[in-house]
Each structure stands twice: as structure tokens, then as C-alpha cells.
Amino acid sequence: MPEFNPVRGMRDLLFDETKQLNLIIRHARETAKSYNFGEVTTPIVESYELVSAKSSDEIRNRMFSFQDLGNRMVALRPEFTASIARLVTTVLKKAPRPIRLFSVGSVYRYDEPQRGRYREFWQSNYELMGSNKPEADAEMILLTNYFLKTLGLQNYFFKVGHIGIVKGILNQERVDEKTQKEVLHHMDKKEYDEAFSRIKNDDLKSILQNLVEIKGDDIFVITEEMSLLVKDYGEAKNAADNLIEILRLVTKTGCPIDSIQPTFSRGLEYYTGMIFEVQVPELEISLGGGGRYDRLLELFGGISIPAVGVAHGLDRINLALQIQDVKVKDQKTKKIFVIPVDEDLKIKALTITEELRNSGLFVEFEVMGRKMGKALEYANKRKMDYVVIAGKSELKEDSVALRNLLKHEQVTVKLENLVKKIQD
After folding, report:
1. How many C-beta atoms lie closer than 10 Å to residue 377's C-beta?
2. Among candidate residues 303, 323, 343, the one where a domain is terminated
3. CATH for 397
4. Cα→Cα distances 142→99, 132, 256, 318, Å
5. Do 386 and 316 fall into the same domain?
6. Together in a domain, 300 and 229
7. 148 — phi, psi (to 5°)?
8. Residue whose C-alpha is closest to residue 211's, from 176, 243, 253
9. pLDDT bucket at 58, cuts 50 / 70 / 90
10. Do 237 and 380 belong together in one domain?
11. What CA–CA distance (Å, rounded) separates 288 from 311?
12. Can you count the helices (H) and strands (E) in the chain?
């Protein structure tokens, strides 16, 4: 018989791994509630035309795409934004603005598997539709900061840019769209020689080189220099000033902005304004990022709706937490195992189990019919906190034996006091 393993780039997540991922997802949902984002669920399989519309060639070439039985080209979603754009231009077309949407789930890209990079991975996604104000852009950074801070992650930092600065320069110099894509792609990867080789105009090349070379520790000194450098390019100047305003809003809250990157584009062609990523020193890959995309929705519905969003890589955040040895806390930490001593006590013991569950506790019932010693051995292996032992003599007194496996103590407790005793 062949031994079957997961497809390359896919993973089985076992008990503790799944628990940790679910705890991170719970924090993502709590973040959505804190910022009043409503949760929606979109299909994993979407029209290829939809998800490829404004993805970069790099992402488009890594999609899991195929022809379905109806001869339609479809793809596993490589990210959430296209699906959300479809929703907003159809069923949510008349929803009051701004529209705040949250989604979480698995996405798929045919990347080369490596540390922190898989072909199936989990994202939490937040989209704010309807506002073109800098405070909407600032909210995406602040939301990300809140999410990571509540998880307990340390030393994370943001890098922020504005795609409109370079695009504004290229547009004014009438650089064709194909060349613009090539220039942005190479600048995003810091392949500056390759990027500049696409440009024939020496003055334009000089402006872009000077932009790349702006350095410093003070983000406002850097952005003011950028604004001054592009003062003769109206669109780029407006973009630089917009970035300054966003940074002012963000930094007033104490959110850590460590670097300004005017030449990165995050591999997606639909960005039109501010873009950002968040990282930790221990990993070279970003934990999440996003930006403004004011013209994407026009592709799907002919309506112009300004929008900004962010996606968080939950697998990468999980990896960063593990590296930093940060444990995400579960609000319900106590686990209880219920054992009926005799066969004829099963119904009463099961009733007690359900009452404990209804009180919000995590409870497992002994379903294997094991003797007491083996059942207790199992409870220890599963790292239970308490064992409730339903014995005949105790039940006659409306009591049970409660064993604390951490303290190695056992007491008799009245059923009416059992929940309180466990929760104390």
C-alpha cells in the first residue's frame, strides 16, 4: 500500500497547532469587532477572470487555476480583495458607507515552500470601502498594530510607502503602462539597476535614483525630502503630502513606523496610494500588509468607490510568536475529564458532563470504558486540569470526587458547588 502524505506545500495541523491557529483567528475576530468590521464569508473558488484582473504577473502565474466541469476557468483564491470587491459591487452596492468588511480563511499560491511560506496559508483580511480620507489609511495600520499587540508579539515594525509617488513621476513623463509595471516590479525587489535600465530618459532616471537614495532615521525628514524632490510632479507631490498626513495620524498614537519605502509595491497592481508591511527582526518575510486601491472596484461594477485594506498572514504571525516564545492565551484554559466509576453510572456522569459544558468549560467524557487507572493515565497525557470521578457513594450524597491533576489533590465536592470549585 502506498503511504499518502499531504501535497507539497500543504500541511496537516494537529491538535496544538490547530488550537494555536484558532486562538489567533479568535484575536483577529475580536480585532474586527473592536473596529466595527462585519464578518463575511466568500468562496474559496472564484472566477479566474475576477481574481486575475489586477494581480501582478508574479501572482497570476502562481494561481491554482483550472477548468471546471462546465468548461469555466476558475481559481482557488490567492487573496481576498477581489472577492470583497465583487461583493461590494453587487449585493452590497447600496450599503451605507463606509463599508467595513472582515474575512478569514485559507488562500492558495503556488510558491516555493520554505520557512513561513506555504501553498495553502491562512489570512485575516480587513477592507474599508467608501472613504478617501487619510484617516481611513491610518486605521489599517492602527488596526494591525492593535491586533499584533493584543497577541503579545514583540518588536514588530512597519515600513510604509506610497505607490502614487513613483507612479506619479512615471505618468507625468508618459512612461507606458508595460514599462511602468516592469520598473515597479524591479524597484519592489530592490533590483534598481534592472529598473533603471528600462528608462531611457536620463533626467527621469536621476529623479528615481535620488528617491531611492533618500535615507534617515526621522520619517518626517525623509518624507519632506521626498515631497521637495518631486515638487515639479503634481501627482507625485500630492502623493508625498498624503503620505505625510497619514504618518502624522498614525504616529500620534505611538504606533511604530520604522522606515519609509517609496519604491515598494507589494506585488499587486491594484494599489493606488499608501502601502505598508509589518515585520519582525527574526523573519525576513512580512507578517502582513495592505494599502489603498481606489480604482479596483471600477473593474467589476463600473462604480468608483475609494477603498483601503490589509491582510495578515496568520501562519507567519504564528511562526513569529513561536520564535519569540509568546503563548497566545485561551480565555477558557481549564479542561475537565469526567469518569463514571461503574457502567450503571454513565447516565448520571454524562448529565454532569453536559452541565459543566453548559457552564462554558471544556469537558471530555470517558467513552472507552477504561478502568480508573488507565482513564487517569489518559487524562494526564491529554494534559487535563481536573478529573471528575462519578462514584456510587459520592453520587448518593449528590457529590463527586474532583481531582486536581496539577496539584495532585483530590477532594469531594457537592454537585451544586462543582463549577465554582473548578473555576476558582
Report:
1. 12
2. 323
3. 3.40.50.800
4. 18, 17, 10, 20
5. no
6. yes
7. -70, -35
8. 243
9. confident
10. no
11. 6
12. 17, 16
Place of cell 474599508: 128
What's the number of CA atoms in the CB half-sphere (13 Å) around residue 151?
32
CB-facing half-sphere around the CA of 70: CA atoms within 13 A: 4
The rounded distance, in Å, linking the Cα atoms of 276 and 162 is: 8
Residue 95 is given by DSSP the state: S
Q: Are residues 258 and 349 in the same domain?
A: no
Distance CA 45, CA 66 (A): 10
Nine cell digits for residue 26: 479568535
For 123, other C-beta atoms within 10 Å of its C-beta total 21
**Can you give the residue range of the structural domain that contains 286?**
15-323
pTM of the predicted protein model: 0.86
- Please provide the average confidence, as pLDDT, over all residues in the chain: 92
Place of cell 487555476: 65
Task: State the CATH number of the domain containing residue 131.
Answer: 3.30.930.10
The three cell numbers locating residue 11: 500541511
Domain count for the chain? 2
CA distance 239 to 153: 31
Q: Contact 102/29 with Cβ under 8 angstroms?
A: yes
Render pLDDT for 184-211 as a digit per residue (tens, 0 to 9): 888 888 888 998 899 988 889 999 999 9
CA proximity to 47, closest of 70, 14, 17: 70
Nearest to 274 by CA among 286, 287, 257: 257
DSSP output for 309-369: EEEEEHHHHHHHHHHTTPPPPPS---EEEEEESSGGGHHHHHHHHHHHHHTT-EEEE--S-
Amino acid at position 394, single letter: E
What's the rounded Cα separation, in Å, for the pair 204 and 197?
Answer: 12
The model's pLDDT over 225-238, given as tens digits with 9 standing for 90+, comes to 999 999 999 999 99
Single-letter residue type at 383: K
Q: Are strands 335-340 and 362-365 parallel, antiparallel or unpaired?
A: parallel
Quick: pLDDT tens for 78-102: 999 999 999 999 999 989 999 999 9
User: First and final CA of the chain: distance in angstroms?
Assistant: 52
